[in-house]
Specification:
With about 240 residues, this protein is α/β, with parallel strands linked by helices. The protein contains nine helices and ten strands. It is about 35% helix and about 20% strand.
Length: about 240
C-alpha cells in the first residue's frame, strides 16, 4: 500500500475571513482530507468551519501535536499516513513546522519516506522581515529570548553584536503579555544606532510595522503592543 501525503496547511495569523490571506486552492486540499494533526484542536475546528470546506466538522478526525506531546506519541500520529490516508498538519497560526511543534511530525515523515507537501500561506516572521527594510539576504530567526533578566540582557547583547558584525537581521518573538517588557529591554541594552523593527497584528486591522534606530525609538511614544502578537527584528543600517 502506498503511503498518504502530509499536507502542510497554513492557517490565518489575523482575524476575519481566512481566505483574505489564504489561497483558494488550499480549500480544495482541506476538503479532500479526513484526518488532521493540529497544534490546537479547538482552533483548527474553528478554522476549518470558517473556511467552509463543504463537509461537517464532526465527520473529520483530529489528533493533537503540541509542545506538550511526548516524543513517544509522535509515531502514533502518522499511523493514518502509513495506512495510505492523506493528512493535513495545521499550526495554531501561520505556517506549520515553523516555530511550531509540528516539525517533529514532518521529520518523522521524512524518515519513513512519506511525501511532505507545503501549501502557500502567511508567516508573520517573513512578513515582518519583508516590511522591515532590514537585511533580507542574511537573517536568523531566534524564537524566544530567555526570561531571566540577566540571561536575557546577555542574549540581547550577543544578538546585537551578530547583527552589527555580520549585518545579519536577528528576528524574535515573545509571548504577547511580555511584549512591552521586551521592547524596554531592547532599548535598555542596545546601542543608539542599532535598528529595531516592531511589527504587531500583521494582517489585522490594527497592524503596526515600524523600523528605526534604538536612539530614535527612545524619543518616540512607546508602541501599543501589550497583549498583541508581535515580531521584533534587530539589525543595522
Amino acid at each position: 500500500m502506498a503511503y498518504g501525503k502530509l499536507y502542510m496547511i497554513p492557517s490565518p495569523i489575523g482575524e476575519g475571513n481566512p481566505y483574505d490571506v489564504l489561497p483558494e486552492a488550499n480549500r480544495a486540499v482541506m476538503a479532500s482530507l479526513d484526518y488532521f494533526i493540529a497544534e490546537n484542536l479547538r482552533t483548527v475546528r474553528r478554522f476549518l468551519s470558517a473556511a467552509q470546506i463543504g463537509r461537517p466538522i464532526s465527520e473529520l478526525q483530529f489528533a493533537e501535536c503540541s509542545e506538550h506531546t511526548p516524543a513517544s506519541e509522535i509515531e502514533t500520529l502518522i499511523a493514518p499516513l502509513l495506512e495510505g490516508h492523506d493528512t493535513g498538519l495545521i499550526s495554531e497560526a501561520g505556517l506549520p513546522g515553523v516555530a511550531d511543534p509540528g516539525a517533529d511530525v514532518v521529520a518523522l515523515c521524512h524518515r519513513r519516506g512519506i511525501k511532505v507537501v507545503p501549501l502557500v500561506g502567511p508567516s508573520s516572521i517573513m512578513m515582518a522581515l519583508m516590511a522591515s527594510g532590514q537585511n533580507g539576504q542574511s537573517f536568523a530567526f531566534n524564537g524566544y529570548l530567555p526570561i531571566k533578566p540577566a540571561e536575557r540582557m546577555k542574549a540581547i547583547k550577543r544578538f546585537e553584536h551578530r547583527a552589527q558584525s555580520e549585518r545579519q537581521a536577528q528576528i524574535f518573538i515573545e509571548a504577547p503579555y511580555r511584549n512591552a517588557k521586551l521592547f524596554d529591554d531592547f532599548l535598555a541594552c542596545c546601542s543608539g544606532g542599532t535598528v529595531l523593527t516592531v511589527a504587531s497584528d500583521i494582517t489585522n486591522e490594527g497592524e503596526f510595522i515600524y523600523s528605526t534606530t534604538v536612539g530614535e525609538w527612545k524619543s518616540r511614544p512607546k508602541p501599543d503592543i501589550n497583549k498583541r502578537p508581535a515580531i521584533f527584528i534587530l539589525g543595522c543600517r
